[in-house]
Amino acid sequence: MSLDLKRQFVAQLIESSRLLRNYIDQRAKARGTTRAQWIVLFRLRQQEGLSQVDLADVLELQPISLVRLLDRLVESELLERKPDPHDRRANRLFLTPKGRQLVDDLDSLRDAIATDVLHDVPDDAIESGMETLVAIKAHVKSGTEPAPEAEQHPKVRRGRAKA
């Protein structure tokens, strides 16, 4: 694969990601929430009782960045902080009934968004895209750079080895 094609792919990925975030922001706003709030509510539905630090870690955010967002969710009565019984310095996070209802209602929005943005994309392309995105995420999270030879397409390496 040529370096130019890789650059084009990364550029498309960045642009598509930005557009998708904006699209989700608009759709969430119409439901009276934000994408950031939505992400927190979904994660807490999956893992209620996380500490603020653990939630920040799971969401890959700095704890200080999350505090203001959590404050707004508490003020909106969507979330509550409860003291950690094992650590006086920590709070555990739980959805309120109102928060649980909102996140349940947002399931239909999540389904609608997925259907809308992928309506003409074949299933095999979605599966391949998922594999690609998972690999990209793993490479980025590992923070390691591949050896120069590993960056080349396997056919190119084989061709060089024979030469």
What does this structure look like?
There is one protein chain. This protein is mostly helical and 163 residues long. It has seven helices and two strands; from the N terminus they run ααααββααα. The chain has helices at 3-30, 35-46, 52-59, 63-75, 97-117, 123-142, 154-162, and strands at 79-84, 87-95. It has a two-stranded antiparallel ribbon with strand order 1-2. Helix 1 crosses helix 5 (97-117) and helix 2 (35-46) packs across helix 5 (97-117). The longest helix has 28 residues, at 3-30.
Labels describing this entry:
single chain, 163 residues, mainly alpha, two-stranded antiparallel ribbon, 7 helices, disordered C terminus
What pattern of helices and strands is seen along the backbone? HHHHEEHHH
Shape: globular
Distance between the termini: 19 Å
Report low-confidence residues grouped into runs of 5 or more: 152-163
Profile the largest sheet: 2 strands, antiparallel
Question: Number of helical runs?
Answer: 7
User: What's the Cα radius of gyration?
Assistant: 21 Å
Across the major sheet, the strand order is 1-2
